[in-house]
Structure to design on (205 residues):
């Protein structure tokens, strides 16, 4: 699969590396083309600008701070027809933004017309993205919310290839629940002092 990553921070490089190690063609996109190139080379892929990453990817990962999402999507250019994975948590200047009747992912969909938006990995700590999704024999769960079944299946394959356990969490309107899951793990990590080497696991029978 061709994967373009928007942002060369902790989540972008961690997930980029995990997808590259799973055999996918990863292109790291940055505001600074040279930074993108070295980030791509460091994980066995390639890199450059946001627009190049968006053009490269059948799947494009949005891994920038919430406050930069609008300018990132605008720099990425047309994302029509692309699968756009929204990894963001909507932290603003005064804490977590709330979207009554909506969610960060639905706002991303509004800002990227024609993209098939799938929410995912926002509740996975960068510590996991930069190490392994395996907890012993058990893989970390990634909840995926999106309206396009094919896009969600594509992202689920990517997740499985990288060692995660993807779970379909329903339509994009359910992204608010997946976003709330991040609030839960952040509280567990910091307020309850469990640290960030934790993940949610869905048990099935
Ligand atoms: N850290 C976590 O554990 C975690 C877990 C789940 C989800 N998230 C979410 O994932 C997103 C990325 O988090 P992160 O921890 O990877 O952040 P990070 O390490 O700060 O990286 C964010 C990247 O976004 C790019 N960027 C574009 N515009 C920016 C701006 N105005 N200011 C700063 N960076 C900008 C930068 O890449 P270039 O310089 O290459 O453009 C930067 O390296 C956030 O929305 C966060 O809420 C984080």
């Amino acid at each position: 699969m061709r994967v373009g990553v928007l942002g060369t921070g902790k989540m972008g490089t961690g997930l980029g590396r995990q997808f590259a190690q799973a055999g996918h063609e990863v292109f790291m996109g940055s505001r600074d083309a040279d930074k993108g190139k070295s980030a791509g080379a460091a994980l066995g892929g390639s890199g450059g600008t946001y627009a190049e990453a968006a053009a490269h990817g059948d799947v494009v990962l949005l891994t920038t701070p919430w406050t930069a999402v609008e300018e990132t999507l605008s720099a990425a250019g047309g994302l029509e027809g692309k699968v756009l994975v929204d990894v963001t948590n909507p932290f603003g200047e005064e804490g977590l933004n709330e979207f009554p009747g909506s969610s960060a992912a639905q706002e991303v969909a509004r800002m990227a017309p024609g993209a098939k938006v799938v929410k995912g990995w926002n509740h996975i700590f960068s510590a996991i993205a930069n190490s392994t999704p395996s907890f012993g024999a058990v893989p970390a769960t990634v909840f995926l919310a999106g309206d396009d079944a094919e896009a969600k299946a594509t992202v689920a394959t990517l997740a499985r290839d990288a060692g995660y356990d993807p779970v379909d969490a329903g339509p994009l309107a359910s992204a608010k629940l997946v976003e709330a899951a991040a609030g839960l793990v952040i509280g567990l990590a910091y307020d309850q002092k469990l640290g960030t080497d934790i993940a949610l696991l869905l048990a099935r029978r």
Q: What stands out?
A: The radius of gyration is 16 Å. DSSP finds eight helices and twelve strands in the chain. The CA atoms of residues 167 and 194 lie 24 Å apart. The pocket of NAP is lined by residues 7-12, 30-32, 35, 63-66, 68, 72, 87-89, 91, 122, 124-126 (CB under 6 Å).
